[in-house]
Design brief:
With 348 residues, the chain is α+β, with helices and mostly antiparallel strands. It has 14 helices and 9 strands. α2 crosses α3. Pfam families: HHH, HhH-GPD, NUDIX_4.
């Protein structure tokens, strides 16, 4: 059985009609690939459409303020992708005269573009036979060839890249790359793969040895950290509040939030003094406080779980440099803050 030919034939019948598959424009392909990193197609598609509508060219994206880009990205997570997207757009416009690099070796130099993304753009937009290896490809190859090398190990990354490179159809690299990714997403799924109606079933080593559920192998992740967040939702007599921009390095860099005090454990209502002692600006106001949520809101990120409480701090008089509560919807914020705002501002 010809693996590549079988995959491509399956794709010709089963592929989804997606907008980035109907173009060779490297800007649109790059945009789709950045959005779909760590994001499933059904979640990423509306974002792709909104970005294309707001920024129809790389020049439009480069000219946009970063806050506008982050606001449009809100809800997708991994915000470094959005910051890198914007930085790369400006680099292409300012340093490359608005022209996308056309080879893998040049594409991989762009900020936020790794091996997978460079391979995808080079093959789909420019026909270069560079093999893509994403989660779907790892799964298909590890199962079909019975490979138990951990996919997130140095040896595994090299092995699977070499195998994908060997298998790619040099006459139609764009079709092969999209076919194997689609096959992994729809046929050789992580859970409940459709093995009974799989065109590769007869020669699939994992199926024939009863190892489908054991492959691919992945090394255990590092331990997830726990953090305890206390957000101070100030409200003054004019219904103004305080919103701060996160300027330090981190996944939420340049997003907005309420003043934050971290604690070593989850605090109860009667322990507000612990927060007062760690937020000196409270001392300048006369206030009453209340705990908005007695149970922690747990926000799970890939590397840490955030146990969060929101404290409503009602100020007598007016806040220094306060902004209207009603204006918060215009700021780019983490999903954790966005969800709170939906509940709190719309509570009436």
């Amino acid at each position: 059985m010809n693996f590549s030919e079988t995959i491509i034939n399956w794709y010709s019948v089963n592929k989804r009609d997606l907008p980035w598959r109907n173009t060779k424009n490297p800007y649109f392909i790059w945009l789709s690939e950045i959005i779909l990193q760590q994001t499933q197609v059904n979640q990423g598609l509306p974002y792709y459409n909104r970005f294309v509508e707001a920024f129809p060219t790389v020049i439009d994206l480069a000219k946009a303020p970063e806050e506008t880009v982050l606001k449009l990205w809100q809800g997708l997570g991994y915000y470094s992708r959005a910051r890198n997207l914007h930085a790369t757009a400006k680099h292409i416009v300012e340093k490359l005269d608005g022209v996308f690099p056309s080879t893998f070796s040049e594409l991989i130099k762009l900020k936020g573009v790794g091996d997978y993304t460079a391979s995808a753009i080079a093959s789909i937009a420019f026909g270069e036979p560079t093999a893509v290896v994403d989660g779907n490809v790892y799964r298909v190859l590890s199962r079909y060839f019975g490979i138990d090398t951990p996919i997130n190990s140095t040896a595994g990354i090299k092995e699977f890249k070499a195998l994908a490179t060997e298998l790619i159809d040099h006459k139609q690299p764009a079709t092969f790359n999209q076919a194997i990714m689609e096959f992994g997403a729809r046929q050789c799924r992580p859970k409940n793969p459709d093995c009974m109606f799989c065109p590769l079933q007869a020669s699939c080593l994992a199926f024939n040895k009863g190892k489908v559920s054991n492959l691919p192998v992945k090394l255990k992740k590092t331990k997830v950290k726990q953090k305890f967040f206390n957000y101070l939702v100030f409200i003054d007599s004019e219904n103004n509040t305080i919103f701060e921009k996160r300027t330090g390095k981190g996944i939420w860099q340049n997003l907005y939030q309420f003043p934050l005090v971290e604690s070593e454990r989850s605090l109860q209502s009667e322990e507000f003094s612990d927060i007062e002692n760690n937020y000196s600006k409270l001392k300048k106001y006369t206030f009453d406080y209340s705990l908005y949520n007695s149970e922690d809101i747990i926000h799970k990120l890939s590397h840490q779980h955030l146990y969060t409480k929101f404290w409503i701090v009602e100020i007598e008089g007016t806040l220094d440099q306060g902004i209207p509560l009603t204006s918060l919807k215009d700021y780019p914020v983490p999903v954790l803050i966005a969800d709170f705002l939906k509940r709190f501002i719309n509570k009436d």
